[in-house]
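Kindly go through the entry underneath: sequence plus fold tokens. Please state briefly how this chain folds according to its tokens.
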Amino acid sequence: MAKKKSKKPASRAAATKKVAQKKSSARKVAAKPTARRKLKSKGRAAAPVKRARGKQRVAISHYRDEDFKADGLRTYAKYRDLGVAEASAGVARAHVIRLIGPCEPEVVSKLHFHDVDFQMVYVLKGWVKTYLEGVGETMFKTGSSWTQPSRIKHLIMDYSDDVELLEVILPAEFKTVELAV
């Protein structure tokens, strides 16, 4: 005669754990709507509010030397706008920056920060030596990249005569603050 297998847990501890897990899952599901109602009743939204954005479109930019303009943030640089600010309805900006050589530290080495959500720099050509708050002096060469958190104090210390940088910033419009040293 075949022996029937029991469906009971092997131990009382295992049975207690299984019941507790079921109750816990049920409580979590039941608690979610209540928690949301409580947040709303106190004037707080349950989920972050998304900013209204304009419709985005494709941006295409082909290299042309004449597109580098001396109309950007720094007088010692020429900027080639890649059309991202307009195409993204102001969500982001991307440009190629050519720093004009030779480097004059007394002109370029100004401690400052940008009030941005995101900033990334990629060295396309040449090299640049920077100071970043909390990091110190760093040499970046072709193929190097870095991000700069919002409001991090930084400055350019030196660069090669042929340096070109790709910079991506969110949002497209932002404030730069120069600091007295």
